[in-house]
Design goal:
With 346 residues, the protein is mainly α. It has 15 helices and two strands. The protein has a single domain (27-41, 52-344), classed as ABC transporter involved in vitamin B12 uptake, BtuC. A two-stranded antiparallel ribbon has the order 1-2. Helix 4 (85-103) packs antiparallel against helix 5 (107-129).
């Protein structure tokens, strides 16, 4: 028997074993894919199934989710605490408002402009922040959030920012005479932008850059010993985080059709941080849960008691933290474990 015949017989004999040894798709991967496709289908259908104001609210949920994603990249994956993201939100909002109101720029054109300006500001803030850690960095960014509304009200800035009066905008119509209302068009633009930024965030986290960021978060000394340029990575992620938040601010300016300094106070930064914790630290999909929480829960608290809305909100937040110590990510992991055990029993 020739050598070729022996090889052919051996391959034929091993074929069944090779088929049996082929790994099945991971239960968690199948579960994740199905959930993502279901959510995407629901997101595409929702603006055509609900009324105008609900479409507006859902758009704002996605806008907050984009900002929370940016904060998560900085805090969840790199360990830098920020209470100043309302400033980057304001930069993005005012960039879009000024370009549209003063220079008649198209809405879509203002989005990359807001991203670039917010990224540049984030890098500038990130450079001096390299000397600060933990609570000291939070305090420094707190001052940034506190001073931004005052800067926007300054008399020399009124020609651009409108001062205390702010800037009123007109919502853009859908292009090419598409049969969409203004709110539906903005919803779809926000959804597309959110998906693009989510894909970008996932790629960053799974890349060499993401591994370096998490190494810095866990042990900066060990990361430096491994040859990681801590200053460069920290500055870069500060800029990227600011870019995400700036884009969210730009989308918010058009969705709300108005920008004013008092819309970007410290309370917005705190709300984004709350959304980050509720959604799950270092878990990007949780940004959507966090966005829904910071939009709907305060409204729910007002309905329960207008006089004690703050107390009701605090109780709901405490219950959420008690029942979900890891945020929504904890519930997701439990669901994945259940699916994984069920698949193993098959």
């Amino acid at each position: 028997m020739s050598l070729e015949q022996r090889i052919a017989i051996g391959m034929a004999d091993s074929a069944p074993r090779m088929v049996k040894a082929a790994p099945r798709l991971s239960g968690s991967l199948v579960f994740t894919t199905l959930v993502f496709l279901a959510l995407l289908a629901a997101a595409l259908a929702l603006p055509f199934l609900v009324k105008g104001f609900m479409v507006f609210q859902l758009t704002m949920v996605m806008i907050y989710a984009i900002a929370i994603m940016g904060l998560n990249l900085l805090t969840g994956f790199n360990g830098q605490f920020s209470l100043g993201h309302s400033a980057f939100f304001a930069v993005g909002a005012y960039t879009t408002a000024i370009l549209m109101d003063r220079y008649d720029a198209g809405f879509l054109i203002t989005l990359p402009a807001a991203a670039i300006i917010a990224f540049a500001l984030g890098v500038l803030i990130g450079l001096p922040a390299l000397r600060l850690e933990n609570i000291y960095l939070a305090l420094a960014t707190f001052s940034l959030a506190a001073v931004t509304p005052q800067l926007l009200k300054l008399t020399p800035m009124e020609g651009l920012t409108g001062g205390v009066q702010g800037i009123a905008l007109v919502k853009p119509d859908a292009p090419f005479s598409l049969p969409l209302s203004q709110d539906q068009w903005l919803y779809l633009v926000t959804l597309a932008t959110g998906l693009i930024l989510y894909a970008l965030a996932v790629n960053i986290v799974r890349s060499r850059t993401g591994r370096a960021l998490m190494a810095i978060r866990e042990n900066p000394i060990a990361a430096r010993a491994m040859g990681i340029d801590i200053a460069a990575y920290k500055t870069l992620i500060f800029g990227v985080s600011a870019m995400f938040t700036g884009v969210a601010g730009a989308l918010s300016a058009v969705t709300v059709s108005f920008v004013a300094p008092d819309s970007f106070t410290l309370s917005l930064s705190v709300a984004l941080l709350v959304g980050l914790v509720v959604g799950g630290v270092a878990w990007l999909p949780g940004a959507l849960v966090g966005g829904a929480f910071i939009l709907f829960v305060p409204n729910l608290a007002d309905r329960v008691s207008q006089g004690l809305s703050g107390a009701v909100y605090g109780v709901i937040l405490l219950l959420a933290i008690y029942l979900m110590p890891s945020g929504a990510s904890g519930i997701w992991r439990v669901a994945e474990d259940i699916i994984g055990r069920w698949r193993k029993q098959e």
